[in-house]
Amino acid sequence: MNPEAAPPAPPAPLDADIVCTGFGPAVAGFLLTLTRGLQQPEMAAVESRAIAGLPPQVVCYERADDISFGVSGVVTRARAIRASLPDLDPSAIPLAARVREEKLLYLLDPLGATRRPAWMRLADQVCRALSGVLGVEHEALALPWIPPFLHKGDGFIFSLGQFNQWVGQQVMMSGLAQVWPAAPVAAPLIEDERVAGVRLAADGSEVRAALTVVGDGPVGAVGRQLDEHFGMPAGHRRDEWAVGMKMVIDLPESCALEEGTVWHTIGYPEPEIFGFLYVHPGRIASAGIFVPSWMDSPVRTSYRYLQHFIQHPCLWRHLEGGRLRSWGAKSLLESGRRGEPCLAGDGYARIGECSGSTNVLTGSGVDEAWLTGTLLAESVLELLRKGEPFTRQNLERTYVARRRASWLEHESRVAEKARNGFQWGLLPGFLGMALAGLTGGRIAWPRRSGERRPKRLADYYAGRLSRAEIERAKARAEAEARPLHDLLMDLCGWPPVQYDGQLLVSHQDALLMGGKVQAPAEFPDHVIFRSPQLCRDCEAHLCVEICSGEAIRVSQEYPAGPPAFDREKCVHCGACLWNCPVSNIEFCAAPGGLHSAEN
Ligand SMILES: Cc1cc2nc3c(=O)[nH]c(=O)nc-3n(C[C@H](O)[C@H](O)[C@H](O)COP(=O)(O)OP(=O)(O)OC[C@H]3O[C@@H](n4cnc5c(N)ncnc54)[C@H](O)[C@@H]3O)c2cc1C
Ligand code: SF4
Ligand code: SF4
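A: This is the predicted complex of the input protein with iron/sulfur cluster.
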């Protein structure tokens, strides 16, 4: 490089009217409603303020390599989606089906390896003793009744990736919005306490806009920076999370499960882990689990648990002989209404999961996210038509007021305290959910003052493993630079997973099946360990244990120091961010990650 050469000029700012971050169901609902509205006769006179003579310039930047990145179940009642798309024909969307059969299954522990409380062990014994009367089959009890709040019986099964892609095509065909994948947004532009647009991670260029729509999901960098700058409303916090991990599976010929089958499961592979199985058209199924932040276990591996989940006799008799098509993982923000940030401010509005829309009682986030997007679009159309600016006051009068009057608000109030019980224990958790759901939120478990967090290793394994066994396992894990969970699970009686090369494959092979993980060379590491000292003092290395892609590993060079990060393996699930007990991880915006259009 010539030292006398002038430094490169900063990229020129781009002007738009509306800039969106992230293309999930929230922004998909926003853009579909907005672009349709802009085509109505009453909007014909509305012009762009950024480029005179043109219609409003709307641009959306998505971090992932494709707009079909979404990782989700999905089973949804799709009330808001159907309101937007009344003629929705599932056969038009790959992997979409109507829900035909729905079951809530209690899975017994077939191995004796889970850490069940006494009441659950008793429940297993009663189920086995009375299996004929209760109809227990293949170590599972189908509960005779699904609480109405959990029911998805009139809804759809989707692949979120395929659904996003389908909506995205319609948005882009309108010619009224541009959606750019592989374009992470590094930060909001905050000027004089208003948001004036965004800064892109690739080259630092600014995109200035009258309105910034933030829909970057549970762990998005833009939403988190807004929270840091503007603060959360009084009493609101983001302290409950889960990581959802799923497989998309080609079902074997022998499988008798029908398209439209929906199973929700509780009880296995650990009592805290909920699971699901949904059957798509074409003999394809989605199966997955949710590992919550309130789970006590300090060795919280989603991948191995998922492998044991699909091998539960009740599922395995349908899945054995199947083939893994793809695999994915992503965080869920489970603080619900308590995690709701400031929904709007001067020049910006928040939608979707980053706005606290996910319903923690019904386990539903896609339709809620979509609804928030449509409500914002209606408000934006109203303000554009009247020529009114996107001020905090105007956005609160239109968007926030619409949101407060919607079913989302009513249901989020019902759900607000539904999960409090899990902070006390499993039984209070289940009872609390039932009470809140059946009484419309009027009766709920009180919230505990301290958060339920993973225990220390010795406390968690007390009575099962001795301190000496734990220390030996730790020494071996460090020496072999591998996560601790495999060794401790083996010691607790979990059988090793017998890889079949088809469905039961190593974690590393799963990263490559049905998709690819990419990390473009020109970007710096997006997972940063702030203080190496904190990592050295850390007992359980939760970031290593939870890492969905084995991207964070105990470093071979410094086994007792900060872990190593391999961004070529990171699937951007965001779980490391909220699992570090001392908030020692910085999780920045970056492109790449897992690319599979089916998750
Ligand atoms: C395994 C699993 C199963 C689930 N099952 C169900 C289910 O059955 N039913 C249901 O209703 N919900 C389910 N959910 C929840 C549901 O997926 C979410 O609530 C929903 O996707 C939220 O939508 P969103 O648009 O707000 O955010 P997201 O879907 O998270 O979309 C946000 C987008 O923003 C992008 N982004 C993030 N940061 C940036 C940045 N800096 N710059 C640019 N782009 C960025 C992301 O890549 C992403 O595409 C499940 C979730 C998981 C993980
Ligand atoms: S990032 Fe957090 S969890 Fe990971 S090793 Fe460091 S302190 Fe421990
Ligand atoms: S490093 Fe990547 S894959 Fe691992 S937990 Fe963090 S975001 Fe997920």
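The CA atoms of residues 25 and 366 lie 6 Å apart. The domain at 14-87+159-233+340-414 is CATH 3.50.50.60 (FAD/NAD(P)-binding domain).
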